[in-house]
């Protein structure tokens, strides 16, 4: 087992592209349905929203994976749609379908009426959960706070629910660009304030999930997504609470725009599994650290295959500092937790990127 001091430092060192004693690893959705303890807490809460909005329960499930596995970071248990819910759009979850809003945005007037929520009032349960997690972790591993990207939030806010192609919101952006830019600017300011509140409450790193950025053609991506990711980064750099906090940006499916993403000013880019780490690194150079990017389906394979694929991903990155091992998307509910142990042990056992 790694020394506690090593485990507490290696994730943040890797994000800053500094040498590490072992490659850090955490996985997206690591607090989730594949864990029996999560399922028990979720049942006790009664609903997903109740779980996310009860700081004590959100803290409990945040800590479950780092107590079970040797992960090098915890990520706050929450949801990317907390901000539009606080804006009054009426978030709820439909069984078998996912999140939906009672009052989706259908006009420029509705967008103009939106305001930036105060994280310590309408979103108080989130910084309260961060404070609890920070206290309970006690420096064991860093804590990641997060938010959805302005574009991804807009996708749900305009569509009203998830979509296979997000045609309505893309058409709105093309037909009503001024209104869409107003919405994205409001979202960007809200995300920056929200992330700053999480940092002030004890988050050690921050992450923006641009889950639907890859739905956009490159020109639209630059105009409607990357522009506002850069705005968030600039706002965080200007805020004393977040100036030294590393920011990870994960834009799934946006591999055509890696150079644009690296220019946003973030510390690290998350990558999905449809690009190799060495190809991504050649394109972005030393500007950012890279996080990723094992295909989540690998965890359904045998332990021997998991070890082989871990070695392949690490070899693709090569002997350089600045790699955080992760999946290329969230872990799926049908994964055996024993396979996660295999993954984590394999990452730590292999030669680290940039050993001191």
Task: Walk me through what this model shows.
- The chain has a domain at 75-130 and 138-270: TIM Barrel (Alpha-Beta Barrel), CATH 3.20.20.210.
- It is built from 15 helices and nine strands.
- The strands form two sheets. It has a seven-stranded parallel sheet.
- The chain starts with a helix and ends in a 7-residue tail after the last helix.
- The chain is an alpha/beta fold and 356 residues long.
- Helix 13 links the parallel strand 7 (268-270) and strand 8 (289-294).
- Helix 4 packs parallel to helix 7 (125-137) and helix 8 crosses helix 9 (167-175).
Please provide a brief summary of the model.
The protein is of the alpha/beta class.
Low-confidence stretches: 1-5
How many distinct beta strands? 9
- How much helix is in the residues? 40-55%
Q: Tell me about the largest β-sheet.
A: 7 strands, parallel
Rounded to an integer in angstroms, the radius of gyration calculated over CA atoms is 19 Å
Q: Write out the strand line-up for the largest beta sheet, numbering strands in chain order.
A: 1-4-5-6-7-8-9
Order of helices and strands: HHHHEHEEHHEHHHEHEHEHEHEH
CATH topology value of one domain: TIM Barrel
Mean pLDDT over the residues = 95
Shape: globular
- What percent of residues are in strands? 5-15%
At the first level of CATH, the class of one domain is: Alpha Beta
User: Quaternary arrangement of the chains shown?
Assistant: single chain
**How many angstroms separate the termini?**
19 Å
In terms of structural class, how would the helical and strand content be classed?
A: alpha/beta
SS element count, helices: 15
What CATH architecture label of one domain applies?
Answer: Alpha-Beta Barrel
